[in-house]
Amino acid sequence: MNYSIKKNSLRILCLLFFLSILSSQTSIYAQNNQEFKGKVIDADSKKSMALADLIVIGTNISTITNSEGEFLLKVPNAFMDKSVSISYLGYKKLQMPLRKFKNKKTRISLERAPTILAKVDVNVPENAKALVLKALSLKGENYVNDETVMTSFYRETIKKRNKNALLSEAVLKIFKQPYTTRKKDVITLIKARKKTDYSRLDTLALKLQGGPFSALQSDIIKHPYYVFSANNIKDYTFSFGRSTQINNTLVYVVNFKQNKNVTRPMYNGKLFIDANSYALTSATYNLDVSNKDAASRLFVRKKPREVTVYPTEASYYVKYRINNGKWYFGYSNILLTFKVKWEKKWFRSRYTLQSEMAITDWDKNLTAFLDRPKNRLKSNTILTDETSGFADPEFWGAYNIIEPEKSIESAINKISKQLKKS
User: Fold this and answer.
1) What is the pLDDT along the chain (422 residues), one digit of tens a residue?
2) Bridge partners of 285?
3) Are 184 and 177 in contact (CB under 8 A)?
4) DSSP run (H or E) holding 400
5) For the CA atoms of 231, 234, 240, 243, what is the dihedral angle to 10 degrees?
6) What spatial distance separates the first Cα and last Cα of the chain, rounded to whole Å?
7) Phi, psi for 108 (deg, rounded to 5)
8) Would you call 18 helix, strand, or coil by DSSP?
9) Any bridge partners for residue 317, and if so which?
């Protein structure tokens, strides 16, 4: 008994020691960083601009606006003399000194880029498919080809109908392999949190394919075989859309869709290709889910026999950023919608799974690759299986995240109330 008491006392002392270290680290983060909040809007319409990029010039620090155009940017004090580049597809790039940012309610207006489409479209290449193949072949010239350590913010949400059923977030380290190699990227978990109890929901018995690795796999340049493999590219039809501009640079728009005689699930969407370097700058695409059984097998990892599950929507968005003339994976957003039908229930349930990954910092840190990274996530990891609670109010320290559309705690309170009602 005395041994047990001593053992428990030792555990408590260790826990208190760990918490004191965590608290002191959080305090250091707060002292060494400035935090800025604000909103990016259209200068004319005053509408919010979702997915606008904010990058601290001369550093690898960045963030992205949420669906309401809001942003949260944390910058070390050593960089307070820098400026921030704010950019959005079809708009003039804006540079704004950090000294003009406010801790709260910084309002940034972006102006539309001059329309030169009539002149631009004259110079569009004749063969859209050839342009796509060229963009894929130039990954060695256009993209970062060093072993790179990236800091990433990642969020997963699951909604049942329109109600939040699960919410989880994490800060990750990504050991990104060069674009010219087939070596697999490695992801390690730094910090993670979640708050929900879905024991009464269908998600208890349902495992959907997803997680941080799915976000990385939306990088078409690094993983082209998921969309444009050597065997299936002949099953697509490519055509040109109207050209546009990104940061005052001409960008070709290529539409693609699967051929009508193809019945297996394939993709359709748009590719945005830089006219000067032929680099893919962004892409938006959707999976054809009309073949329910085949589409279901792509996403559902585990389910009870008495349940029928099939996707009704699968959409993807990937964006690249450029630094010193080289492009790199910067952001992805995946939205999956499913119908779930139990044999003994009259009505179907609709679930929406959304995941976002934003690269907020990166470094060509070769020494980090010499040691085997600890806490490696498996390729089939679902974040909610790895995370803990919201106990630490200063959880995120100095890390940049995507500002939530609503307060996280507010969303969690709604989840808890909904669960109590059910």
Assistant:
1) 444 444 444 443 333 333 343 333 444 444 588 999 999 999 999 999 998 999 999 888 999 998 889 999 999 999 999 999 999 888 888 999 999 999 888 999 999 877 555 455 555 677 999 999 999 999 999 998 888 889 999 988 887 777 767 788 888 899 888 898 888 888 988 888 876 655 445 554 455 566 788 888 899 999 998 899 888 999 999 999 888 877 678 889 999 999 988 888 899 999 999 998 999 999 999 999 888 888 888 777 666 777 788 888 999 999 999 888 899 999 999 998 888 887 766 667 788 888 899 999 888 765 555 565 667 777 766 665 555 544 455 666 778 888 877 666 666 566 556 555 54
2) 269, 316
3) yes
4) none
5) 10
6) 44
7) -120, 125
8) helix
9) 284, 333
Q: What sign results for the dihedral spanned by CA atoms 198, 202, 203, 206?
A: positive
44: tokens are 């004319």
Tokens of 28: 């250091």
Structure tokens belonging to residue 54: 């904010």
Q: What is the DSSP annotation of 225-279?
A: GGTS-TTTGGGEEEEE---EEETTEEEEEEEEEE-TT--S--EEEEEEEETTT--
The one-letter amino acid at 87: S
Quick check: 279 and 138 in contact, CB under 8 A? yes
Q: Which DSSP symbol is given to 380?
A: T
Q: Which residues contact 31 (CB under 8 A, 6 or more apart)?
A: none
Cα radius of gyration rounded to whole Å, the chain: 23
Half-sphere exposure in the Cβ direction for 2 (13 Å, CA) = 0
Rounded (to 5) percent helix, strand, coil in the chain: 25, 40, 35
Structure tokens at 176: 């990104």
* CATH no., domain 29-110: 2.60.40.1120
For residues 143 and 137, what is the distance between their CA atoms, to the nearest angstrom? 11
Instruction: Tell me how far apart the alpha carbons of residues 112 and 92 are, in angstroms, rounded to a whole number.
Output: 6
- Can you give the residue ranges of every domain in the chain? 29-110, 118-389
Q: Which residues touch 408 (CB under 8 Å, ≥6 apart)?
A: 167, 169, 195, 390
Other beta carbons less than 10 A from residue 44's beta carbon: 10
250-254 contact pairs (CB < 8 A, 24+): 250/120, 250/123, 250/274, 250/275, 250/276, 251/275, 251/281, 252/124, 252/125, 252/131, 254/128, 254/131, 254/132
